[in-house]
């Protein structure tokens, strides 16, 4: 399968002040991330809030320029300069937001907002607002309503419909269901899956919820403090984690198949991701940390069918079947 | 401290913008040689005047010279009266201050107690009077107020002189005119600030501790209500300055406001620029003072800035 | 006189906080009726005025208004020192004062919204420059600035209106910038940008409609101050010049006859006060009803 989106050694940091009157320091939100997404598949990213997932989403779409590394869409470098070429590129890559209410204009009707892409890119968008509403399972009588008159799930359908109006090839979903009830979230996930098959969409799917990611992704990347620490097929990563951080994440999910397994509680908070943070970023919270971890940052290497960035990956888990 | 320095820098930039703006707008507004010497003056005299004042040099050279002199404390010469602009303005400003200082004193001495009283007795006759007076104070411009006062006290009752200066009686009507609008505004702001503070949970809490009401008001309500009121006083410096121009013109008071109008009419650059600069300086200083008072009145702001 | 003072957060007692669809309180209805009457007068002044506003009736100089002794029924509001009909002059003055104030309010809003959007969009040095201008404008009382600039403006009514358009723009710029920044943070503006919309489209079609009600309220509060600035300057003889009439210059011209003919200043003064009062009341009411953030 051909690669649609590829990130190569992408990093991005932000200047921040710890408190008033202290020197600014650079906090690295995304550090040396590389990934490839094959066309028509879903790449899931999981991690705690603050680990750089949303920055990664914005880098992937060219909404934010990387400090280092490159992002390529269909082999062509994605620039973050907001020029006409950038605006044309939006037709290929769209985003679904965490808060659909915030992403919709409070003073325009749903129908207006579904029709907006066609006005921005004349002649390039598909059909009418009605067609889009039908595509995402919204009844046509909602088109005259305002966003605040809709339910959370309906709003997210509007956002998805608007994103698909331009027939994009890549859709980045940044926590698309975290603001929704569980049952509504499942409906939206199903909608996204159906649309993926019908439209041959490629997703970069970001969530803090491992179970949601497992339902939709063919590949999953676990992110910790700006780095991808484990990448592989969801079944392998979630049922047989090798990185200590993934182990801890997975152990937090109640799951009948691993009832016997002990929950791993991480001690302390993540360190501040400053540029001079040496060694493995996870070592301060890691039970297996050794002196080597303080000096040498582990890079991704292949272990049993997935990539792990750890000097001392866990041994295979023997499931009690 | 850093906060204060930032504010100081902003104030300096603000003044620089005012100086620059005044300089160029005035230079574009007409030829002072013709205005001062008259249209019948012969070409040689006009030329001599322009050379004497450096008006024949390129604009940016004039500007550079002006700024350089300004930085050395030289505000330039009045073309019309052949006196130092600063000297002239300072002299007239003294006359202006004899109006504005008493007006501001009356404003505070009457406005603040009236507002506090109105807030403590909401719905009373005093409260309603304060509110009506406040609306009137905003909508009746000072030139109408002045004419009404003249009509009543000078024309009808013949109690006070209508225009001119010299005796203390001459100052009464201008001072009252200047004070009325401000008093109304201060009373209204004090009232709403007090009403808001009295609605805060710490007021009943202080009463519940057994403090008697006057002490609650004095110790808890007034200091907190003072914060928004101080801001308005800062703004009022500006409206007083503007009001002075009108009031001095109506009452023929020889202050800086009339000097401004005369100097604009005569394109007397240095004087207009000096007045604008001083007014701006006054406003900027007033705002800085307000900021400092804030920190003193509200310990929370102080600690936020210090941390 | 018209310093840009912040307004108290608390609404005045007579102005309630009506719920949606309720009829406005009686004071507001009276104020609206007065504003309506003034606008009507402004429109029909040309046809309705009994005489041209410059027509002299030298036999009827300083004739008092009805019902005072010596009044001439042909001049119900009296005549001035040249025997010009006060009623006709008032109508023309209302027209020019309202027209100038209205144009100036629109100009000030246009400047404020544009600069507010520019500083919110570009941030960085553009924002810094705009904020310095805002500071500078706020640091010189408008009347004093206007007096200094007016020599440049000359006697043209158009330039005078443009000059008055500098009144209050800094407040609208501040408000607009703040609201545009919060719109960007809210995400709907960013979401439209992510669709590939051009910045002009985002600001005009998406952000502007969301902030329009606040801007309109701010304009309503700016309008009476502009009327006062216009009449103050014209009163000083620096604004609208004779033989043209404006409410302020009528008061200014009548000032010399305050003893002999007080009606010359009382009529225009009453109209200035009533109109500014009406617009302020409506502005306060609109603010309390639609926008408590101002």
Q: How would you describe what is shown here?
A:
The complex is a heterotrimer of chains A (321), B (307) and C (294). With 321 residues, chain A is of the alpha/beta class. Chain A has one domain (3-11, 25-308): Rossmann fold (3-Layer(aba) Sandwich). Chain A contains 11 helices and 12 strands. Chain A starts with a strand and ends in a 13-residue tail after the last strand. The model of chain A has no long low-confidence stretch (mean pLDDT 88). Chain B folds into 2 domains: 2-71, no CATH class; 88-306, MetI-like fold. Chain B is built from 13 helices and no strands. Residues 302-307 of chain B have low confidence and may be disordered. Chain C is mostly helical and 294 residues long. Chain C has one domain (26-53, 77-290): MetI-like fold (Orthogonal Bundle), CATH 1.10.3720. Helix content of chain C is 66%, strand content 0%. Chain C contains 10 helices and no strands. Chain C has helices at 26-48, 86-122, 124-139, 142-153, 157-164, 169-186, 188-194, 199-235, 247-254, 263-290. In chain C, 50% of the residues are buried. Chains in contact: A-B, A-C, B-C.
The gist of it:
The complex is a heterotrimer of chains A (321), B (307) and C (294). Chain A has 321 residues and is an alpha/beta fold.
Summarize the helices and strands and which ones pair or pack.
The complex is a heterotrimer of chains A (321), B (307) and C (294).
Chain A (H helix, E strand, L loop, with lengths): L2 E15 L6 E15 L3 E5 L6 H8 L7 E6 L2 E2 L6 H6 L3 E4 L3 H4 L6 H11 L8 H7 L16 H13 L5 E5 L7 H18 L2 E6 L2 H7 L2 E6 L2 E6 L1 H6 L4 H8 L39 H5 L5 E3 L2 E3 L13
Helix pairs in contact in A: 4-5, 4-6, 6-7
Chain B lengths: L1 H27 L3 H6 L5 H10 L6 H13 L13 H36 L4 H15 L2 H15 L11 H31 L3 H7 L4 H38 L5 H10 L3 H29 L1 H8 L1
Helix pairs in contact in B: 1-12, 5-6, 5-8, 5-10, 5-12, 6-8, 7-8, 7-10, 8-10, 9-10, 10-11, 10-12, 11-12, 12-13
Chain C lengths: L25 H23 L37 H37 L1 H16 L2 H12 L3 H8 L4 H18 L1 H7 L4 H37 L11 H8 L8 H28 L4
Q: Determine Rg of chain C (CA atoms, Å).
A: 22 Å
Count of domains of chain A: 1
Distance between the termini of chain A: 33 Å
Oligomer: heterotrimer
Overall, the morphology of chain A is: globular
Q: Work out the helix count of chain C.
A: 10
Helix content of chain C: 55-70%
- The helix/strand series of chain C, from N terminus to C terminus, equals HHHHHHHHHH
CATH fold name of chain A, please? Answer: Rossmann fold
Taking the alpha carbons of the first and last residues of chain C, their distance comes to 21 Å
The CATH class of chain A: Alpha Beta
Structural class, judged by helices and strands of chain A? Answer: alpha/beta
Radius of gyration of chain A, CA atoms, in whole angstroms: 21 Å
CATH superfamily of chain C: MetI-like
User: What is the SS-derived class of chain C?
Assistant: mainly alpha
């Amino acid at each position: 399968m051909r690669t649609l989106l590829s990130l190569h050694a992408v990093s991005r940091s932000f200047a921040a002040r710890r408190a008033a009157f202290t020197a600014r320091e650079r906090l690295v939100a995304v550090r040396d991330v590389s990934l490839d997404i094959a066309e028509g598949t879903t790449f899931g990213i999981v991690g705690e809030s603050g680990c750089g997932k949303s920055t990664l989403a914005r880098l992937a779409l060219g909404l934010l320029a990387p400090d280092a590394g490159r992002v390529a869409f269909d082999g062509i470098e994605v620039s973050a300069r907001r020029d006409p070429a950038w605006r044309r590129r939006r037709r290929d890559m769209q985003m679904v937001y965490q808060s659909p209410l915030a992403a919709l204009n409070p003073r325009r009707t749903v129908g207006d907002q579904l029709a907006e892409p066609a006005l921005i890119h004349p002649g390039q968008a598909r059909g009418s607002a009605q067609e889009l509403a039908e595509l995402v399972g919204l009844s046509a009588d909602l088109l005259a309503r305002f966003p605040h008159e809709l339910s959370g799930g309906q709003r997210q359908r509007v956002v998805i419909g608007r994103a698909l109006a331009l027939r994009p090839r890549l859709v980045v979903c940044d926590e698309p269901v975290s603001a929704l009830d569980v049952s509504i979230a499942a409906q939206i996930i199903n909608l996204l899956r159906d649309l993926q098959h019908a439209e041959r969409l490629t997703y970069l799917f970001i969530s803090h919820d491992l179970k949601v990611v497992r339902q939709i992704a063919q590949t999953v990347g676990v992110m910790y403090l700006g780095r991808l620490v484990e990448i592989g097929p969801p079944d392998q990563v979630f049922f047989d984690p090798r990185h200590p951080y993934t182990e801890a994440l997975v152990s937090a999910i109640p799951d009948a198949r691993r009832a016997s397994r002990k929950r791993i509680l991480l001690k302390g908070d993540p360190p501040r991701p400053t540029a001079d943070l040496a060694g493995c970023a996870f070592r301060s919270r890691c039970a297996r940390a050794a002196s080597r971890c303080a000096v040498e940052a582990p890079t991704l290497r292949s272990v049993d069918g997935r990539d792990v960035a750890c000097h001392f990956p866990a041994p295979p888990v023997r499931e009690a079947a | 401290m850093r906060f204060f320095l930032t504010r100081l820098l902003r104030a300096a930039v603000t003044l620089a913008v005012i100086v620059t703006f005044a300089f160029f707008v005035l230079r574009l507004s007409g030829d002072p040689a013709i205005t001062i010497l008259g249209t019948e003056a012969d070409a040689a005299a006009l030329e001599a005047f322009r050379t004497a004042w450096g008006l024949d040099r390129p604009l940016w050279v004039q500007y550079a010279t002006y700024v350089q002199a300004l930085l050395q404390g030289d505000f330039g010469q009045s073309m019309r009266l052949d006196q130092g602009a600063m000297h002239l303005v300072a002299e007239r400003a003294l006359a202006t201050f004899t109006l504005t200082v008493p007006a501001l004193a009356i404003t505070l001495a009457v406005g603040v107690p009236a507002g506090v009283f109105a807030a403590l007795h909401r719905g009373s006759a005093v409260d309603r009077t304060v509110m009506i007076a406040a609306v009137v104070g905003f909508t009746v411009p000072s030139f109408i107020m002045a004419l009404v006062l003249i009509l009543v006290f000078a024309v009808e009752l013949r109690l006070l002189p209508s225009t001119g200066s010299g005796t203390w009686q001459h100052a009464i009507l201008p001072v009252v005119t200047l004070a009325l609008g401000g008093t109304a505004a201060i009373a209204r702001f004090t009232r709403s600030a007090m009403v808001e503070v009295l609605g805060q949970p710490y007021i009943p809490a202080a009463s519940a501790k057994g403090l008697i009401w006057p002490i609650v008001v004095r110790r808890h309500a007034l200091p907190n209500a003072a914060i928004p009121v101080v801001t308005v006083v800062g703004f009022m410096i500006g409206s007083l300055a503007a009001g002075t121009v009108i009031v001095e013109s109506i009452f023929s008071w020889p202050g800086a406001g009339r000097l401004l109008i005369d100097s604009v009419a005569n394109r007397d650059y240095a004087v207009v620029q000096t007045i604008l600069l001083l007014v701006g300086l006054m406003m900027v200083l007033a705002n800085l003072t307000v900021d400092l008072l804030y920190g003193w009145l509200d310990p929370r702001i102080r600690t936020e800035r210090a941390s | 006189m018209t310093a840009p003072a912040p307004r108290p957060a608390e609404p005045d007692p007579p102005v309630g906080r009506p719920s949606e669809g309720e009829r406005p309180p009686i004071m507001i209805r009276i104020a609206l009726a007065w504003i309506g009457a003034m606008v009507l007068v402004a429109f029909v002044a040309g046809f309705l005025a009994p005489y041209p506003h410059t027509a002299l009736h030298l036999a009827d100089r300083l004739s008092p208004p009805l019902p005072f002794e010596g009044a001439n029924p042909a001049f119900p509001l009296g005549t001035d020192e040249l025997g010009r009909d006060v009623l006709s002059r008032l109508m023309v003055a209302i027209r020019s004062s309202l027209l100038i104030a209205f144009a100036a309010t629109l100009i000030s809003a246009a400047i404020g919204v544009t600069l507010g959007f520019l500083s919110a969009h570009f941030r960085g040095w553009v924002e810094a420059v705009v904020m310095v201008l805002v500071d500078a404008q706020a640091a010189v009382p408008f009347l004093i600035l206007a007096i200094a600039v007016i020599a440049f403006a000359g006697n043209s009514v158009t330039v005078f209106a443009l000059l008055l358009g500098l009144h209050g723009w800094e407040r609208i710029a501040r408000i607009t910038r703040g609201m545009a920044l919060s719109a960007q943070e809210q995400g709907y503006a960013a979401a439209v940008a992510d669709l590939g919309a051009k910045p002009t489209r985002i600001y005009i079609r998406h952000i502007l409609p969301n902030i329009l009600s606040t801007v309109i309220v701010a304009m309503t509060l700016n309008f009476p101050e502009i009327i006062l600035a216009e009449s103050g300057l014209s009163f000083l003889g620096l604004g609208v010049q004779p033989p043209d009439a404006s409410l302020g210059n009528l008061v200014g011209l009548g000032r010399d006859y305050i003893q002999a003919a007080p009606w010359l200043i009382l009529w225009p003064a009453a109209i200035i006060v009533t109109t500014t009062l009406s617009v302020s009341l409506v502005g306060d009411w609109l603010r309390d009803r639609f926008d408590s953030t101002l």
